[in-house]
Write a structure and sequence with these properties.
HDIG_dom; 298 residues; HD-GYP domain-containing protein; alpha+beta; binds fe (ii) ion; HD_GYP_dom; Hypothetical protein af1432; single chain; HD/PDEase_dom
Length: 298
């Protein structure tokens, strides 16, 4: 199996390089385990998916660092060259795990939500690899095939004794509260709560990750996109998610659209895309500076 790493970030302290190597080894091992488990699980219908083993792997990745920002930065630099599905699934699982903490969910629900994130795209294993890995624009026919992955995922998972919310997250994570999603065009009250949470984590991770055809978007830019598309997402979950993720970045240096550097000092609970920063010795609420946005987190 061919795996490829992005170059190490040379700007960080040496300690981070050692962390990065250990992290790489661990994430690759987990992604391979996920891929192997799912392949065997789908081919051999008589065997149950070892969810405890998958959960343990995810928890151990989170425990590798006590700083979630560090975890996410390192995770984003580990990429299998021709297939992003497994790393994306791990990212979504970790975001779901954190989300359950922010919502003070009991441990059992946290595990179910983490597994829902880990398994949400399992249906992509039923779509031809050359379409999943295609770097350019998809044809209409190819897009129609991709749109079958939620139903395929549900069909894979329902053969086994898993919590219904895990199966529903696979089936409904591309549904949108305003009815504009697929495969069924469900409306808010018809969509499983866990699928609504996975949908937000899935959208966020896809846009903050690099693609062959574009650079990754800055998290605060993705918050703006999420705010613009707020009718598509559950408003309570969206607010909790953005506040939680934004809080990862308190204390980080940021580059603003006016090319100045600033330090994020707090989130802005009424507008998470515009945090409170310290710039030129002054505390500035970026919501009050409409021409200035966060462009990059250093
Ligand atoms: Fe998906």
């Amino acid at each position: 199996m061919e795996w490829k790493f992005l170059p190490e970030d040379k700007s960080g302290p040496a300690r981070k390089s050692r962390d990065y190597r250990l992290f790489n080894e661990r994430v690759i091992k987990s992604a391979q385990l996920l891929e192997k488990s799912l392949s065997e699980y789908i081919v051999r219908e008589d065997e149950d998916l070892n969810t405890n083993k998958l959960l343990k792997e995810t928890r151990e990745i989170i425990a590798l660092s006590d700083d979630p920002v560090h975890t996410f930065r390192m995770l984003r630099r580990v990429r299998r060259y021709d297939d992003l599905t497994y790393i994306h699934s791990l990212n979504v699982a970790i975001l779901c795990h954190e989300f359950a903490n922010w919502m003070h969910m009991p441990e059992e629900e946290q595990d179910i939500l983490t597994l829902a994130g880990l398994l949400h795209d399992v249906g992509k294993m039923g779509i031809p690899g050359k379409i999943i890995k295609k770097a350019g624009l998809l044809t209409d026919e190819e897009y129609e095939l991709i749109k079958q992955h939620p139903q395929k995922g549900y069909d894979f998972l329902k053969k086994h004794p898993l919590d219904e919310r895990i199966m529903n997250a696979a089936l409904m994570h591309h549904e949108r509260c305003d009815g504009s999603g697929y495969p069924q065009g469900l409306k808010a009250d018809e969509i499983d709560d866990f699928a609504k949470i996975v949908a937000i984590a899935d959208y966020y991770d896809a846009l903050t990750s690099a693609r062959v055809y574009r650079e990754p978007h800055c998290p605060f830019e993705v918050f703006r996109m999420l705010q613009q598309e707020r009718d598509k997402f559950d408003s309570t979950y969206l607010a909790v998610f953005m506040e939680g993720v934004a809080s990862f970045y308190i204390g980080c240096e940021v580059v603003l659209s006016n090319q100045k550097r600033a330090r994020m000092v707090d989130t802005n609970p009424t507008d998470q895309s515009n945090p409170i920063v310290k710039m030129d010795g002054l505390i500035v609420n970026l919501a009050m500076a409409p021409d200035v946005d966060v462009k990059e987190i250093c």
